[in-house]
Amino acid sequence: MNKHTYLKPIGILLSLLWFASTGACKKENTLEAERALLERVDQFNTAFKESNLMALESMVTENYQHTNGNGKPIGKTDWLAYLEKRESEIKNGTLTIHQYEMLDVQLTLFGEVGVVTSKISVQSTNMGAYRENEYRTTNVWVKDGKSWKRAAFHDGKIR
Question: What DSSP letter does each residue of 39-94 carry, written as one string?
Fold first, then answer.
């Protein structure tokens, strides 16, 4: 057996290890993580528009923090209480959501933490008054096992 016979498999193995350590594999993993997170954000927005409280509760962390530009930060329990009130208003016809759209989405990953910034455009009728509002938002998402959960939210009204 030729003494160089073992060098070929070692060369292939070293090449594979080098490839795996380069940005090619990391980029693919990052793209997959970005896709999964953006899909989760879409699911969250659909659940919010449709007032699906069970889905929303499962998509936020236990220590979730929510801040609107016009109020103080609230935790998960208070946010869910707000959602229950909102759901009641939707069911009794006091509140109608005509449009809820996330625009200008920017995503930055920091390992298993994702920061999603966007503009939210909302058209609604509340107690007979039609409104069009826009908000700049920042969402912090964390990887929780195999799925992403929203850990924090902040918005500021721009229109």
Answer: HHHHHHHHHHHTT-HHHHHHTEEEEEEEE-TTS--EEHHHHHHHHHHHHHHHHTTS
Taking only the tens place, the pLDDT of each residue in 70-121 is 889 999 999 999 999 999 999 999 999 999 999 999 999 998 999 999 999 9
Q: What's the pLDDT at 59?
A: 96
Does the pLDDT at position 25 exceed 50? no
CA pair distance 101, 36, nearest whole angstrom: 19
CA 97 to chain CA centroid, Å, is: 21
SS3 assignment, position 116: strand
Question: Cα 81–66–58 angle (5° rounding)?
Answer: 65
Predicted local confidence at residue 145, as pLDDT: 87
* Closest residue by Cα to residue 151 from 141, 138, 137, 143: 141
Q: In whole angstroms, how far apart are CA 21 and each of 1, 17, 57, 108, 148? A: 32, 6, 38, 21, 25
